[in-house]
Design the sequence.
């Protein structure tokens, strides 16, 4: 097989929830997307545009109705969520998701680190692992490297989300998926977690999809911006065009591409 620079290819993927009922919802409508290795793509769109559904389709939360999903040259369309888990690091909107609150910080990191490893019945954390975790935590600049035995449930939302981000990238995934991972944080903490995200993505050259409700953040971060509408990608902006983008220009492009006004107060007020 020829070497390719594509990390993820979504070919004409469709997903309809509650088909044939009064609650029928076309969530993904023949969506096609090509993601190259090292791409940091921000994803934006109104409520119900299909942003989180896209993430769930990629990770196998449900099987798509039609189309194909190719990850790094491998067809994963029919793979279960469990089998896909080793390929993806994912951080959700809720800081309480993705960590075990009744376990220590270092125990949570051990779970993440060993996720793709065969470690038999051994649970004890080795000194070598402990050093690795301490160095990783120091990268967050939150002082957590000195609190490795603290219960995760005692951490603030921002600390917990930063830890979840670290856990998602400790063993480098093929792709990092961020589903509005700063939306539940206060503005100052959200800004810190975003800068930390950008740092980790750049340094580790992670292929990343970041769903955000904040247009300014969508423009500021990453090398590509895609906008979704009614289950499809209607804008894909990159390179120099993205660098020159403003919220006003993005709204104008959305109106032109969709034939409608962008109606999402939460996004516009961010």
Sequence:
């Amino acid at each position: 097989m020829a070497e390719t620079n594509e990390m993820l290819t979504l070919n004409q993927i469709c997903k309809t929830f509650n088909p044939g009922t009064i609650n029928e919802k076309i969530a993904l409508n023949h969506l096609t997307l090509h993601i190259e290795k090292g791409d940091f793509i921000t994803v934006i769109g109104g409520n119900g545009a299909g942003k989180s559904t896209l993430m769930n389709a990629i990770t196998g939360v449900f099987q798509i109705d039609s189309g194909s999903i190719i990850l790094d040259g491998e067809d994963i369309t029919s793979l279960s969520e469990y089998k896909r888990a080793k390929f993806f690091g994912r951080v959700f909107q809720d800081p309480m998701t993705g960590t075990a609150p009744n376990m220590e910080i270092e125990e949570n990191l051990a779970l993440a680190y060993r996720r793709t490893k065969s470690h038999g019945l051994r649970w004890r954390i080795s000194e070598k692992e402990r050093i690795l975790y301490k160095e990783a935590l120091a990268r967050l600049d939150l002082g957590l490297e000195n609190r490795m035995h603290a219960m995760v449930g005692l951490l603030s939302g921002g600390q917990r989300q930063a830890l979840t981000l670290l856990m998602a990238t400790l063993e480098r995934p093929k792709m990092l998926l961020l589903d509005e991972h700063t939306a539940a944080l206060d503005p100052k903490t959200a800004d810190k977690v975003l800068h930390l995200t950008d740092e980790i993505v750049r340094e580790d050259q992670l292929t990343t999809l970041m769903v955000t409700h904040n247009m300014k953040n969508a423009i500021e971060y990453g090398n590509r911006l895609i906008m979704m509408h009614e289950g499809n990608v209607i804008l894909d902006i990159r390179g120099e065009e993205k660098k020159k983008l403003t919220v006003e220009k993005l709204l104008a492009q959305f109106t032109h591409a969709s034939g409608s006004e962008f109606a999402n107060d939460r996004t516009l007020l961010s």
Notes: The chain has one domain: 6-269. The chain has ten helices and ten strands. Residues 265-270 have pLDDT under 50 and may be disordered.
